Amino acid sequence: MKGVWAISLGLIWMISLGSVAHSKELHFSTGAWEDQFRAGRLALRSDEINRWEMPSWLGSPKLFIEGSVNRIRVKDDEESGLTALGLSPVLQWRVLGDERPLYLEAGIGGALIDSVSAGPRELSTHYQFEDLLRLSWQFSDNSESRLFLMMAHYSNAGIKSPNMGVNLVQLGFTLSF
After folding, report:
1. Cross-referenced Pfam families, in alphabetical order (predicted)?
2. What is the mean pLDDT of residues 140-159?
3. Which domain holds residue 91?
4. Of 10-14, 38-42, 151-155, 167-171, which gets the smallest average pLDDT?
5. Do residues 152 and 130 make contact, with C-beta atoms less than 8 angstroms apart?
6. Per-residue pLDDT, 2
7. How many structural domains are present in the chain?
8. CATH of the domain at 132
9. Using CB atoms within 10 A as the burial measure, which of 11, 84, 119, 133 is most buried?
10. Residues of the chain with pLDDT > 90: what percent?
């Protein structure tokens, strides 16, 4: 399983963003779901993509691409977990504040997982959709780093049954550079 982490981490740096020079943020998070799952996530986010003008009815969000490595394990059973390699477009809206803003972020992308089950959860396919909903707060006017609370959902959207999915709630930190 240690080899999966190394391969996934290498792939995420190459596939998702091309090079660190085009990256803007590094995200670290950890979380859980009920008493069943524990998770850790490392993500790299691109600079804002300014190529497309968003429709005004969307509220003028910023668009980013976020690549991630996620380790999800069943509580008290290291062998029953899975590793997910994700790539998602993420929209970000400023909700409140100027000096220390609060942001709402949402994304739907894809993830490749190394196991089609995690404990009692059957996922059926190695391809999963990755849904993200995040509230992040820039706690200092001297830095663009943020604290965040995130809800993540992985499922195959009914492509194949069973499709039990995995939900996670995570707390994290964003380091901007």
Report:
1. PagL
2. 89
3. 2-176
4. 10-14
5. yes
6. 46
7. 1
8. 2.40.160.20
9. 84
10. 35
What pTM did the predictor assign? 0.82
At 36, is the secondary structure helix, strand, or coil?
Answer: coil
29 vs 18: CA distance, rounded Å: 22
Q: Are 93 and 59 within 8 A, CB to CB?
A: yes
Per DSSP, the three-state class of 15 is helix
Residue 10 has pLDDT above 70, yes or no: no
Q: For 65, phi and psi rounded to 5 degrees? A: -115, 130
Rounded CA separation 125/103 (Å): 33
Report the distance separating Cα 118 and Cα 115, nearest Å. Answer: 7
Encoded amino acid at 88, one letter? S
**Is residue 106 pLDDT above 80, yes or no?**
yes
Query: What one-letter code names the amino acid at 155?
Result: S
Please tell me the distance from the alpha carbon of residue 18 to that of residue 23, in angstroms, as a whole number.
9
Distance CA 139, CA 120 (A): 39
Q: Mark 122-146 as b/e (b = at least 16 C-beta within 10 Å).
A: ebbeeebbbbbebebbbeeeeeebb
